[in-house]
Amino acid sequence: MNYAERERNPAKHLPSITMVVGLHLLLGWALVNGLARKVVDVLKAPIETKIIEEIKKPPPDTPPPPPPKLATPPPPFIPPPEVNIQAPVTTAPTITTQSVTPPPVAAPPPPPPVQASPVRKEFKPLARVQPTFPRQALQQGLTGSVVAWVHVAPNGSVTNVEIRQSTNRLFDREVVRALSQWRFNPEPVGFIGEYTIDFKLTD
What we know:
By secondary structure, this protein is α+β, with helices and mostly antiparallel strands.
């Protein structure tokens, strides 16, 4: 027996046909007895609806506010005790003026007089350099004389040559050059030597 012949066999479909017929019979009986109306009435009944509020979570515990700060009351005012002090009666002292003459101030002693260095005329030196006749004076045929002061230090050296008198300025430079090289014996105190230098033409 193949598949097509087996499907055509009415005995195989008999349970399915029986179940369908039974369902139809049950549906018809329900319609006849009004079961369908009861179902409709039940469906038409008002439906009660309730709004369920959302359950709110309780707020977190907040700490209570701090108590208000109370200002410290000021200390009670206590008046200072009254003290009666009697000021002593003082009599103004009498001031007597006395003229006091200051002692005379002694005048300082006058400074000792400064002793000028003694001038020694034509004092013999230890070493002597003779002035030379200036060439310009020789060419011009001039003659003359010069008076000079020689300042001598305590060690015998010449510190300065001072021209006191001169007949011609041509001779001054040569006198200063020559006398600055003179040497004298050392002495405790310096001195000034005066010298006259003559410039004469000789044949």
